[in-house]
């Protein structure tokens, strides 16, 4: 894949930018009584159940990490979506309720940076009061860069948030500031992590995207910082999400190499997965210093167990992180249809799903269009 031309000025709105790459697909409105007999859960064409919904609440972020929201593309005057273009909390809540009726048990809030969405705790409170098919509250999690978490952790916990996953790609302050491209000091994120622990948003997980030659020298310092902390540090292979980051295969450090480097200094042994659909392979330090994980999105695709759907901030439904287009759920919402018809239409989409991009990538195939990570979350 050729690197994108980052020298051209980009004055499109995010809507235009994304529209240019990911057209909104209309969804056929399916009558509820045309639905197949309702099962406990629904499966796609590869027998994968629908279990997780990731909800992006904003296209804005206060970081400019080059693999997600490169500064050259998302400049200071970049016109992001207006507030009235975003799904309202009530609309998100309604869509989530329908997904729970289809077997979803876990809701993850993402962005952009989700804590930039005002009064996010109000949405959390609404989602926490919903029920899964088994009558329990859904598992409610949030992915954040933690720059605003110190002020928000307690409020989010009180609203019903269960836990957080924090993105942090370096522990060295100079390297971290260079990576986030906005001079945010690492101390700000560490305060957010402390606040998450104090608010009992456990287990706190930290995701580090590893790029060979960029931040792989931070693997051991990160390990040394978070051993014995109770925090689960996870290393993610650098992925070709979107088309603006100029991804190259030679910047991918395979998880096997990450484990080899850690094991040489701090011996580790593998752990059993919590669930069959778990994306991270779990490891524990032999000296009981805690747990780490690796997410081998490139070298060991896990499409076979992928149970995740993604909802964009403006109401498009993506059935794969690498999809070129999202289904226009907001258009359905505004047709005044009832929940049963909405549920039938979403079920119909999932039952036709065949996405398995990471497996195809391994066979050398590349779709022309891919949604941007900053638009849909990781
Ligand atoms: S490539 Fe698509 S189908 Fe495969 S694991 Fe990722 S999101 Fe799921």
Q: What's a concise summary of this model?
A:
The protein has about 375 residues and is α/β, with parallel strands linked by helices.
Task: Write structural notes for this entry.
Strand 4, helix 4 and strand 5 (163-167) form a beta-alpha-beta unit. This protein is 29% helix and 15% strand. It is α/β, with parallel strands linked by helices and 378 residues long. It has a 13-stranded mixed β-sheet with strand order 1-13-12-11-2-3-4-5-6-7-10-9-8. It has twelve helices and 13 strands. The chain has one domain: TIM Barrel (Alpha-Beta Barrel), CATH 3.20.20.70. The chain binds iron/sulfur cluster (SF4).
| Strand order in space, largest sheet | 1-13-12-11-2-3-4-5-6-7-10-9-8
Number of strands: 13
State the end-to-end distance: 21 Å
Instruction: Give the distinct bound molecules.
Output: iron/sulfur cluster
Give the SSE string: HEEHEHEHEHHEHEHEEEEEEHHHH
User: Which overall shape is indicated by the principal axes computed on the Cα atoms?
Assistant: globular
Instruction: Count the domains.
Output: 1
- The CATH class turns out to be Alpha Beta
Could you tell me the CATH topology label: TIM Barrel
**Helix count, DSSP H or I runs of 4 or more residues:** 12
For the biggest sheet, the summary is: 13 strands, mixed
Into which percent range does the helicity of residues fall?
25-40%
Arithmetic mean of pLDDT: 88
CATH architecture grouping = Alpha-Beta Barrel
Report the sheet-strand fraction: 15-25%
CATH level-four homologous superfamily name: Aldolase class I
Unreliable runs: 1-12, 14-21
From the alpha carbons, calculate the radius of gyration and give it in angstroms.
20 Å
* Helix/sheet category: alpha/beta
């Amino acid at each position: 894949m050729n690197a994108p031309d980052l020298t051209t000025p980009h004055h499109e709105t995010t809507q235009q930018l994304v529209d240019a790459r990911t057209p909104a697909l209309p969804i056929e409105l399916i009558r509820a009584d045309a639905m197949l007999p309702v099962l406990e859960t629904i499966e796609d064409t590869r027998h994968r159940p629908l279990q997780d919904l990731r909800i992006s609440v904003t296209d804005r972020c206060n970081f400019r990490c080059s693999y997600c929201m490169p500064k050259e593309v998302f400049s200071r005057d970049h016109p992001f979506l207006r507030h009235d273009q975003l799904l309202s909390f009530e609309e998100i809540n309604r869509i989530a309720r329908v997904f729970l009726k289809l077997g979803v048990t876990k809701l993850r809030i993402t962005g952009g940076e989700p804590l930039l969405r005002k009064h996010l705790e109000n949405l959390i409170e609404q989602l926490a009061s919903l029920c899964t098919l088994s009558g329990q509250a859904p598992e409610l999690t949030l992915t954040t860069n933690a720059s605003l978490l110190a002020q928000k952790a307690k409020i989010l916990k009180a609203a019903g948030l269960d836990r957080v996953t924090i993105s942090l790609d370096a522990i060295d302050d100079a390297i971290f500031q260079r990576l986030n491209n906005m001079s945010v000091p690492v101390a700000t994120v560490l305060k957010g992590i402390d606040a998450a622990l104090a608010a009992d948003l456990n287990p706190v997980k930290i995701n580090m995207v590893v790029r060979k030659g960029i931040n792989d020298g931070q693997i051991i310092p990160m390990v040394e910082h978070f051993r014995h902390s109770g925090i689960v540090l996870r290393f993610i292979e650098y992925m070709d999400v979107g088309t603006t980051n100029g991804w190259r295969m030679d910047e991918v450090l395979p998880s096997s190499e990450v484990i080899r480097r850690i094991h040489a200094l701090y011996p580790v042994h593998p752990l059993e997965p919590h669930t069959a659909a778990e994306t991270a392979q779990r490891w524990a330090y032999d000296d009981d210093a805690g747990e780490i994980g690796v997410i081998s999105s490139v070298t060991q695709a896990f499409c076979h167990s992928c149970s995740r759907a993604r909802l964009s901030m403006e109401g498009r439904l993506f059935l794969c992180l690498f999809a070129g287009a999202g289904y226009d759920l907001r258009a359905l919402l505004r047709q005044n249809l009832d929940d049963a018809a909405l549920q039938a239409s979403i079920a119909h989409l999932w039952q036709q799903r065949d996405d398995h991009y990471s497996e195809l990538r391994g066979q050398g195939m590349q779709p022309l269009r891919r949604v941007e990570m900053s638009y849909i979350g990781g």
